[in-house]
Design goal:
3 strands; 97 residues; single chain; globular; alpha+beta; Arc Repressor Mutant, subunit A; 5 helices; 14% strand
Length: 97
C-alpha cells in the first residue's frame, strides 16, 4: 500500500526501516546488506532523506552513520502510516492464504 505514495522502492524500504525502528543507526553498506539493494542507490536516497530532515548523519571515522531524526515535523505521522501499512499488508496476506 505504501508503494502507491512512495514510488521509489529503495526510498520506501529506507523509510520503513527508519520509521519502524527509530533508534536504528547504520552506514550505507550495512543498510545495503540489510535491505538487499545497491549501495549507490541507497546512498542517493539517504542524502535526499537527510536533506529534507527525515534522517541525520554523523561521521564515525571515515564512515557516515545515518539515524532517524525524531524531531522531523511529521515523524510521528509517517511512523504511524508505516506501521498501519505493515499491519494492513500482514492482514491481507492472512486473509488471502
Amino acid at each position: 500500500m505504501l508503494d502507491v505514495f512512495i514510488t521509489s522502492r529503495v526510498r520506501r524500504k529506507i523509510i520503513v526501516i527508519y520509521a519502524k525502528y527509530p533508534d536504528f543507526k547504520t552506514h550505507v553498506r550495512g543498510l545495503a546488506k540489510l535491505i538487499k539493494e545497491d549501495a549507490g542507490n541507497i546512498q542517493r536516497e539517504l542524502k535526499r532523506l537527510e536533506k529534507v530532515g527525515f534522517l541525520t548523519s554523523e561521521k564515525q571515522g571515515n564512515t557516515k552513520v545515518y539515524s532517524t531524526n525524531k524531531q522531523f515535523p511529521i515523524f510521528r505521522e509517517l511512523q504511524s502510516i508505516v506501521l498501519k501499512s505493515q499491519r494492513t499488508t500482514t492482514q491481507h496476506k492472512r486473509i488471502t492464504n
